[in-house]
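S1.2 Input.
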Amino acid sequence: MTPLFTMAEIRAIEHAAAQRLPDGALMQRAGQAGANEALDRLPLTVNRAKLLVLAGPGNNGGDALETAAHLGHAGAQVTILHFPPAGTPATERIDALQRARLSPASFAAINGAADACAVVAGTEWTLVVDGLFGIGLSRPISGDFAALVNAVNALACPVMALDVPSGLDSDTGAIIGADAQGVAVCATHTITFIGDKPGLHTAQGRDHAGIVIVNNLDIGRELFPAARAKLNDVALFAHCARRRRHSSHKGSNGSVAVVGGARGMAGAPILAARTALTSGAGRVYACFVGEPPAFDAAQPELMCRSAQEYDFNSAVLVIGPGMGSSAASAEMLASALHSKSPVVLDADALNLLAGSEALRAQLMQRKAPCILTPHPLEAARLLGISTGEVQADRPFAARALAERLAATVILKGSGTVIAARDGTIVVNTTGNPALATAGTGDVLSGLCGSLLAQGWPEWEAALAGVWLHGMAADDLVTEGAGPIGLTASELIPAIRTAVNRLAVHYGT
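S1.3 Output.
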């Protein structure tokens, strides 16, 4: 299980470690780690490799200078674009610069970042090392440096970022100053130091960080605080997986009722209900706010009912897909919240919650398990802020919702964030752009409901639901079905395969 640390936590660990080590030891270790990773990534023999190292004005630039020195001594053809600090540099950075000057690496003669763009574009580089700006960047990259970043992003060669891609917020995954036309380096891989960071795995982080490698710089584990954030991993929920007993029957595996399907929106609850059935629930009811169909021709095992006539205390409830925002729908949501059943709230149920203080108060008083699955716009409505503000700090938004509504929250999107009511967050690692299509959220809600019905605890059901949902998409893309044009219904059999694989490998 990989812990995730905020910038403040990383700074505290770094400060504590520096008290025990000689001056500059951590920067030297970072430089050696960066060089080792770069050498491992080279597709050519070292002496034929042409490497460009961008060394910015801060300590991230010091890491880059140390990296460049090691790469030069290893025999690579290293060119350094060096941008000295405006003020007095740290002693360790001065020492790093001296070592780089004494190494076989060469410094390009440039007059600022504008000239550097010509250097970037003028050679067919084997690899670019980004050490422009680290986790301490507080302002958007602009002007000549923005032009430099854009020039790097236009290259076809691999780009390795040191600690964090320049311009990316390591806590949130947002591009710093995106509203002000901020930019960030698009790395093919990132070697991040001391500990992993949430921003490398959510929002724009997955597009900009690429493959993430963590190097703790040999800092003792006793200096690391207990992490309040982790990457999602099978180890977090595998203990809940169960193999099917020969003596089991449909009642052994629980019942799910999907409530939704107002006029013209019958497809959403059908997707959720089909997923609940094929992921293991013993019985599944599709309960329609509008006129229910006699049966689902593609999945006749589903039992179609009128939502108004269904007993909400008799099954795990997945409420919201295609439900609409009518007064009748609001009454149904109130009835569901009043029930003693576990609930998964999605789509229109979340919009109704956002518009009703009474419904939110009712939700917060529930004792039974509750999972909310908002996308960023639904989360924004619930928090009373803009979608941009949600996306600017996804971990904060997920935490705020979980604490405010006393529920487990799944904030969907690239690097889905799962938040517990105690402030713990987990960032998911599975999934891909194939999920960016209508109906995939309905599939996720049905899967979470199915796991709850099979006896999974609320937290583990959310973690496993998100992980399995993303893994199904990953499997399909690996097989060539997507990411472009993959449909939500195609996920359902792939989820069944993933659920069974989990049970075989980890079930008791």
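S1.4 Remarks. The domain at 3-226 is CATH 3.40.50.10260 (Rossmann fold).
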